Amino acid sequence: DAGVIQSPRHEVTEMGQEVTLRCKPISGHNSLFWYRQTMMRGLELLIYFNNNVPIDDSGMPEDRFSAKMPNASFSTLKIQPSEPRDSAVYFCASSPLASSYNEQFFGPGTRLTVL
Amino acid sequence: GQQVMQIPQYQHVQEGEDFTTYCNSSTTLSNIQWYKQRPGGHPVFLIQLVKSGEVKKQKRLTFQFGEAKKNSSLHITATQTTDVGTYFCAGIPKTSYDKVIFGPGTSLSVIP
């Protein structure tokens, strides 16, 4: 099993540019989560999907952030336009059932730097 | 809002000493999970506790869930350098069956 796959692993961009982060969950997992991690704010849940449907996006910072899950094997998190304060490590995680009663498997993360 | 707190934020111990991190929730939890994140790595699931008063052990690690299901602890006996990392508790509130709330984590340093 390849685990959760995220790309790119590192992204450096300039303020105002669009950034797209990608995630492939573990095959068969029904839930997918996007997190942001910074020193100041720790690990924050941005949004999660159950069976490809967004359930709770209350953690999405503002309208510049959007996430999609067009099918069970792919999700994107987009930031448009990006700002320096968006610099962080973004993790995608998947879980085997449509519930968080099971463990979450985290991907390696995407380290985003916005200059 | 619902919050999960952890103390201490940082802990430095001499190798061989014990270590404990405490997790407290502002609301009653359905269950609680613990994760470990090595420096530069990603969180990795350690364990899940479901029952009130539950105690589980994994080698030198002991996990406990409070009777009121609002607090939890992780105790490491005789720390080793491989224990270095940040330990997160993650609670699922009884009123929100899907949403996991992570604590801020306790960063453990082990001095050889």
Give the radius of gyration of chain A. 13 Å
> What oligomerization state is this entry in?
heterodimer
Helical content band of chain A = under 10%
Which chains make the largest contact? A-B, 25 and 22 residues
Can you tell me the overall shape of chain B?
globular
Instruction: Please describe the biggest sheet of chain B, giving its number of strands, its sense, and whether it closes into a barrel.
Output: 6 strands, mixed
Runs of chain B with pLDDT <50, length 5+? none
Major beta sheet summary of chain A:
7 strands, mixed
What does this structure look like?
The complex is a heterodimer of chains A (115) and B (112). Chain A has 115 residues and is mainly beta. In chain A, 0% of the residues lie in helices and 54% in strands. Chain A has strands spanning 5-7, 10-13, 19-24, 31-38, 42-50, 53-56, 65-71, 74-79, 88-95, 105-106, 110-114. In chain A, a hairpin with a 3-residue loop joins β4 and β5. Chain A is globular. Chain B has strands spanning 4-7, 10-14, 19-25, 29-37, 44-49, 55-58, 61-65, 71-76, 85-93, 101-102, 106-111. In chain B, the strands form two sheets. In chain B, strands 2, 4, 5, 9, 10 and 11 form a six-stranded mixed beta sheet that branches. In chain B, β6 and β7 (61-65) form a beta hairpin. The N and C termini of chain B lie far apart (41 Å). Classes of the chains: A mainly beta (115), B mainly beta (112). The A-B interface holds A 31, 33, 35, 42-45, 48, 50, 55-56, 91, 93, 98-109 and B 30-31, 33, 35, 41-45, 48, 88, 90, 92, 97-105.
